[in-house]
Design a protein that fits this description.
This protein has 187 residues and is an alpha+beta fold. The chain has helices at residues 2-19, 73-78, 106-115; strands at 21-22, 31-38, 41-50, 55-62, 65-72, 81-82, 92-94, 99-100, 117-120, 123-127, 137-138, 141-143, 145-150, 156-160, 168-172, 178-186. It contains 3 helices and 16 strands. An 11-stranded mixed beta sheet has the order 7-5-4-3-2-16-15-14-13-10-9. The longest helix has 18 residues, at 2-19.
């Protein structure tokens, strides 16, 4: 009887430990809330997913700026450049066929998983296999993410382990002065 109780306790604690990892998903109208550090200023930014018209778009809202950033299906699949547009240039901005926004492309994610590296914006990012490296968490749940480091500078990114929509949940030490962290997801 003692072994049965110990077994149940073990599995209860094991399940609790496993359930702490969190993989955010992206559906139509999913809200992503980020805290952004832009050139020394801090601001909240909300992105709302729009998956219509064979493209992925994010409706962006921050400090009175409202914009819609549209990524082509081609970019979501094979893009190789990250756009850091802040939504100020047009109410609707169509990115280039190579550009993604707040995520890397599916092919870049595949390269990362297969080869432990990928190239974006002509920069090679390599997987950091140190699991204890400043993880990202939301409501006490650690986001299941891959941590990468740029080879030419100190840029670091945490990319959600989601091959369909590999969202960037955190960027630090970006030489452009644009760093952000995902703090909330509302489905």
């Amino acid at each position: 009887m003692k072994n049965i109780i110990l077994g149940f306790l073990f599995f209860a604690f094991y399940q609790t430990g496993i359930s702490q990892n969190y993989i955010p998903t992206l559906k139509n109208n999913t809200e992503l809330h980020y805290v952004c550090k832009l050139h020394g200023q801090t601001r909240a930014l909300q992105l709302t997913a729009d998956t219509a018209d064979n493209a992925l778009a994010f409706k962006l809202e921050t400090r009175g700026v409202k914009s819609k950033i549209v990524m082509l299906a081609e970019a979501v699949k094979n893009g190789n450049a990250l756009s850091f547009n802040q939504g100020e240039y047009a109410p609707v901005l169509h990115l280039k066929p190579t550009e993604t926004f707040f995520m890397i492309s599916k092919s870049a994610y595949e390269d990362l998983v297969k080869n432990n590296s990928f190239v974006y914006n002509n920069t090679t990012y390599v997987l950091d296999k140190n699991k204890d490296k400043n993880s990202v968490s939301i409501d006490g749940k650690v986001i299941d993410a891959l941590h990468v480091i740029a080879l030419i500078d100190e840029t670091q990114m945490w990319i959600v382990k989601n091959p369909e929509y590999p969202l960037i949940c955190k960027i630090t030490k970006n030489p452009l002065g644009i760093n952000f962290t995902l703090v909330k997801v509302v489905d």
